[in-house]
Amino acid sequence: MSLLLIGLCVLAVVLVGMVTYDLTQKRHAILRNFPVIGHFRYWLEAIGPELRQYIVTNDNEERPFSRDQRRWVYASSKRENNYFGFGTDNDLESTANHLIVKHSAFPVDSALPTDPLYDPDYHLPCAKVMGAHRNRRHAFRPNSVINISGMSFGSLSGPAVEALNRGAALAGCLQNTGEGGVSPYHLAGGNLVMQIGTAYFGCRDGNGRFDLEKLKDVCAAYPVKALEVKLSQGAKPGVGGLLPASKITPEIAAIRGIPLGKDCASPGKHREFSSVDGMLDFVERIADATGLPVGIKSAVGETGFWKELTSQMATTNRGVDFVTIDGGEGGTGAAPLVFADHVALPFKIGFTRVYHEFYEQGLHEQVIFNGSGRLGFPENALFALALGCDMISVAREAMLSIGCIQAQRCHTGHCPAGVATQNAWLKRGLDPTSKGVRAANYIVTLRKDLTYLSHSCGVWHPALVNLDHFELLNAGKPSQPATEIFDQRADWGLPSKADQEAIQAIMQTPPKERADLLLAKNFKQDPINKDYVSLN
């Protein structure tokens, strides 16, 4: 036998071995879906910095997430070293709107593994009790300021939704169902925020109208902690969605309550109400029926809606328990380009305008503000909290943690990582058990970095960081304090004095002794100043 033939036989055996290994391993969806050739992605990634030093793009150019950002998420989700060496590669003084956190000369000492206050999962409870002001029967304090944003089953694959839910369970955070309803993939142990969209998937009758009894049944049967009425989202505000008949499987049809063989359209607005007055009636109706806190989600366009909402909340006995603001930079599986690029204000601008309306009516301490729209990185999340957010929801960053490679093929149904697809071959590559651990690792790491940042600012919890802690560089021009740019006083964005004291007491208590402090039943409303105070 010639040496060439022997070599070919050895090569064949190696290739068969690689294919067998790639198809059966569960750590890497890309290798499982694309055996052998998938290795090229990892080889190119390994030598990427050297190649990019001379050709292609730098580490901060790619969008919507730069290579540095994706590397940080990937390393964090795998619990690998997520540090970067040799200093920043950003040209700070020549960069416009570069965010700087102004640390304190006297920071809070972060706990070491041997200290009683050390928490390996870096739990960061919300500083406010959701539903407390309106005395909802099932008011609760969210266990995490970082939660998973609304991504429906149908938009994402079943394994991807399950992986995120497993991650939510491990990290002790909430997962928003998205408007597609509660699916079996949402039931892997994580608590849920059920989103109610314009098509009322999961709680609709045969004619597509809202069905309160179905909603009550869902809330009773599943671990739903809150309800979110979606008015619009950042990537396609003011426009509905369309799920083509070709993408509607029997499973999706059963979960959403829609027929097979027909295109399914989500309207651009709700049928149950067409005004602020009607919306508040709807909110109170479902809150009374379920006992759950109820909020709204919206991108920000004209401000008249928010003026009327806060005015009615201040003068009538109705109101939302939380408000989720999505920035125009938010993402979705598919959207018209003009809507993705030009409709709805960016998060920082939009949120500031909304918060101002609540502040003017004295309502800012009574509701929980949730931010969404590319906030899944420590500096962005901390800045959102300083602007007035109480919680952050992450979507695409969470997708990255479970294997998304930013292929930007979500709208085609051919996601190579098995995240945003219903293709049987592609989604089989995503193992929800191992990817669930990665999602949890990412959430915990983000909370860890938020904890360290808040400590560096001299406070115990990121909700206690204010705008005085931030400055923005201005491309060679004098930098500006964030309070000037956003026309806010430094104390804007902070919880009430009682909530500040309560969350500081929680963070100064060893994790194993916090259980009673975290319970919503341990809070009551002071009849004079209307603040919620601890009974402990």
What does this structure look like?
The structure is a single chain. The chain has two domains: 7-78, no CATH class; 146-519, Aldolase class I (TIM Barrel), CATH 3.20.20.70. It is 36% helix and 12% strand. It is built from 19 helices and 15 strands. It has helices at 3-24, 29-33, 39-46, 48-52, 67-77, 158-171, 212-221, 250-256, 276-290, 304-315, 337-342, 347-360, 378-387, 396-401, 424-428, 432-456, 482-485, 497-507, 515-518; strands at 96-101, 146-148, 174-176, 191-196, 224-230, 241-243, 264-266, 294-299, 322-326, 368-372, 391-394, 470-474, 477-481, 523-525, 532-534. The strands form four sheets. An eight-stranded parallel sheet has the order 2-11-10-9-8-5-4-3. Strands 1-12-13 form a three-stranded antiparallel sheet. The longest helix is centred in the last third of the chain and has 25 residues, at 432-456.
Question: Secondary structure elements and their pairing?
Answer:
Layout: H1 3-24, H2 29-33, H3 39-46, H4 48-52, H5 67-77, E1 96-101, E2 146-148, H6 158-171, E3 174-176, E4 191-196, H7 212-221, E5 224-230, E6 241-243, H8 250-256, E7 264-266, H9 276-290, E8 294-299, H10 304-315, E9 322-326, H11 337-342, H12 347-360, E10 368-372, H13 378-387, E11 391-394, H14 396-401, H15 424-428, H16 432-456, E12 470-474, E13 477-481, H17 482-485, H18 497-507, H19 515-518, E14 523-525, E15 532-534
Parallel strand pairs: 2-11, 3-4, 4-5, 5-8, 8-9, 9-10, 10-11
Antiparallel strand pairs: 1-12, 6-7, 12-13, 14-15
Domain Glutamate synthase: 140-458
Protein name: FMN-binding glutamate synthase family protein
GO molecular function: glutamate synthase activity
